Every structure is written in structure tokens, then in C-alpha cells.
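During the reporting period the student researcher (J.K.) took over the structure-prediction task from the postdoctoral fellow and processed the backlog of single-chain submissions. One of the processed entries is reproduced below for the supervisory committee.
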Amino acid sequence: MSAPGAEPVEQAEPVERLAEPIEQIKPVERAADGRAGPALRWGVGLMPEGPAAEVARLAARAERLGFDRCWVFDEGLATRDLYVTLTAMALATERIGIGPGITNPYTRHPSVAATAIASIHELSGGRAFLGLGAGGSVTLDPIEMGRPRPAATLRESIEAIRALFGGEAVTYEGSRVRLRQARLDYGDPAIPIWVAGRGPRVLTVGAGLADGVSLDHIHCDFLGAQVDLVRSAAAAAGNKAEIAYATTLVVTDADMEQTKLHMTYRLADSPPEVRAAIGLGDDRAAAIREVSAAEGLAAAARLLKDEWVLPFVVHGTPAACAARIAELTAEHGLSEITIPVLDLPLAEETMDATVEIARLVEAQTAAELQRS
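J.K. obtained the following C-alpha cells:
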């Protein structure tokens, strides 16, 4: 029943699975250098700025297109709720992996994240994963929430969640995370945990404890060092962490303008040495944050220069983008390329363009394997 004088709420249309023939990504077995899996996987990141039913429809389309994993952004007040959206996606899909891309341990207590992901894992037939990070300015600034000791908080969160997924009664005494005889009866210790980050401490934690590390829009001059850090930290911990690379494909001027919207907070939140590499000083980073908070991402995006953005994305013609991705994959042994969909009205176009580039990558990979 609506409140007196309130407008009736429009009900979302039920989600329908796609049935029409569709051009798919078809992975090619590849050798690389032995560090990655047998075939490059493709993921898509969805920003849930629209109704959960619409995001679920797009996830179903991504599944039909052949994407392996669907990451859902958790941006607090700026988007629809993460776990409501993932629930709708679980009901609309049958094969694709689904999970946060990413959530944080400040607005989502580790026990809450563990309960939600275990529930979605159960609902989806074992397809959920958990993506964790330290949280960004878009999520935390509007609620005036800090992120004290992010690396330590992530470490404790992963350890606590792993223990809860194991099904035993858990007592955990950390500096930031504490549990006392907490039990999750329907967890699954096989649920993958991924960590996304840019700083060395967070990446070291992810490499040592997580199943995978997502390197999200890393400056091209720093990517090799980030990959080496992850691999060395994983080896030191006796862990085998996969590496995914999340980046935007910029083929047109419209792609650049749309990408700038979401590079605002990524650039402002980048480590000082990365901002220094592109000439983005503390004063300009502060201005981006202030304008974003006061006037929105579109206003903040007008402060960005193209040359600040280009080192963080894959750009050029579709063939040039495919060649660059093939080069990065071979050089760094990446197991997944994740392409974010930053504008829901353009989501189908973005996914179709990604499939075109993915098929070019696969053709190049197949040709190289034949020559070797």
C-alpha cells in the first residue's frame, strides 16, 4: 500500500533469459608462459545504476555472449544495492560466475558479506565469488566513513570470512574484525575470494590470501611491477593467486568521454607516485574529489585531460585494442580480462564491442599457437 499522496511505484518487468542466436566469445587454449590458466577468460563489470531487473537482464545477455564472470560494483548510495542485484542476477542466469566487483569491509561487515555471498552461492547453484577491496571515495565520502588500516582490515576480513565459509564456530580477535563463536552453517570453503587494489600492502595481502587479484585500471608503466609484486608475494606465502586485469576499451571519442566519468575517482584515489607520473598534483586531485561530491561525476570529468586517462585504458581501433590485450596477456600471464560497463544504456553496445575484440584476440592467439 502506498503512502497517502504518493505516486504508485512502477513494477519492474520480469527478467527473461535470452533465446536468440548470439555471437559468442570462444576461448582458445593457449600456452602463454604456463602461469595462467589454459584459456583467457573474459569478465564484465556492471555498474548497477538502474533497476536490479535491468542489470540482471544484462547479466543474462553477458552469459549468452560467452562471458565467464560478471562483477557488480558496490558504490553505496550511488547505485542499487549490491546483494539485491546479485540475487536478481542469480535467478536470471545459469552458468556465469557472479559476485561483487568489489565490496569493502567498512560498509559491509565481513560477517554480512559472508552471509550474503553464501546465500547467493546457494541460490545460484555454486556460482558466487567474493570480491573485496579497501573501498573508494564514491562509496565512503558521502557517509563520512574513513578506511583505517586498509591492508590489515582486508587481511582480517579474508581470514574471518574463510573461517566462516568453513562452517565451524569461529572466534576471531583482530584489531578491526572480531567474532565470537560465530557460525555460518551453509557456507562453502570453495567460494573464491578476490582482492582488488592498487597499493603494495593491499596487493600483498591479496596475493598471499586470496584466490585471485584484480588489477583495476593500472597505469601501463606500473602494470609489470604490480604483476611482479603479486607473483612474488603469492610465492612467498605459498599461494597460487590468479591475476585479472580490469580496463576500459576506448575506441571512440564517446568512449573517452564516458570513461572520464569513472576515471575521476580512480585518479583521485590513485597512489601518489601514480598521480605524479601523469602530472596530477594533490591540489588537482582534491579539486576532483570536491567537484565530484558537490556537483557529480560529470562535472568532475570536465577537469580531466585525455593524457591523464590514456595510460590506464586500452585504446585505438578494435584491432589495435586486440593486439594490446594479446600482448599484455602473453607478457604477464593474465587469467582474465575484465571490461567494465560504465553506462547501462550503452551496455549492450559495450559488450558487443568487447566480443568483437575478444574474437580478434582469440584469432591472434590461435595463429601464434599454429606458428609455434
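The committee noted the following: The longest strand covers residues 41-46.
J.K. will present the remaining backlog at the next meeting.
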